[in-house]
Amino acid sequence: MESKPNDNDASLREEGAEGAGFLAGCVIAFVSIFLIVWITAVTYFLYVANNYEKSWDWPRVEGKVLSHDISTYRSTSSNRNSRSSSTTYTPSVLYRYSVNRDVFENDTVQFLKKYSSRSKAKKVLEEYPVDSSVVVFHNPDDPGDAVLVPGIDEKSRLVLNIFTGVTVLLIFLILLAWWKKRKSR
């Protein structure tokens, strides 16, 4: 038995098309927001890393180690099937130095540097015994901003390069899809 199309079938098709259009709009909005947040975060971290790399050119002064410690950071993530946690360690060396007769204290050894084991962080502290003299690289525009080891480490640089590459690839793929869709019209 054959059924004839009626007005209800046409209205159902229109509602389906509207629903699909709404869903596509939601997906586009989500992807757009995700990309904006992603690109903003990557841009910010590249800006920060670039400023940290400039620390190689900062003026150097002598400082004195006052104390040192290791900061421990624990993070936990879980999903339905498993739960995982990780711990990172950051060596903190409190040192005092002066710039133009102003005295400053800081505890940054190296920007963006964390260790996966306590023993590696402890090894860093052994390089800076209490009461020892250290070379301090300080920001000429903000002398309170200082570091003992200028620049960023290779792992941080690698992570930033990967995130930058993924960002460029995402933008390229989106532009390619847009161009192909436009060309097919």
List keywords for this structure.
185 residues; 2 domains; 47% helix; 7 strands; elongated
Task: Report on the architecture of this protein.
- The chain has 185 residues and is an alpha+beta fold.
- The protein folds into two domains: 24-56 and 154-185; 58-152.
- The protein contains three helices and seven strands.
- Strands 3-2-1-5-6 form a five-stranded antiparallel sheet. The protein has a two-stranded parallel sheet with strand order 4-7.
- The model has no long low-confidence stretch (mean pLDDT 84).
Amount of helix: 40-55%
Low-confidence stretches: none
Mean pLDDT metric: 84
The secondary structure category is alpha+beta
Q: Count up the domains.
A: 2
Largest β sheet strand count, sense and barrel closure: 5 strands, antiparallel
Count the DSSP helices.
Answer: 3
Shape, per Cα inertia axes? elongated
Proportion of beta-strand residues: 25-35%
Strands side by side in the biggest sheet: 3-2-1-5-6
Give a nutshell description of this structure.
This protein has 185 residues and is an alpha+beta fold. It has three helices and seven strands.
How are the secondary structure elements laid out?
Layout: H1 7-53, E1 60-78, E2 83-99, E3 102-106, E4 110-111, H2 118-126, E5 133-138, E6 146-147, E7 149-152, H3 154-184
Parallel strand pairs: 4-7
Antiparallel strand pairs: 1-2, 1-5, 2-3, 5-6
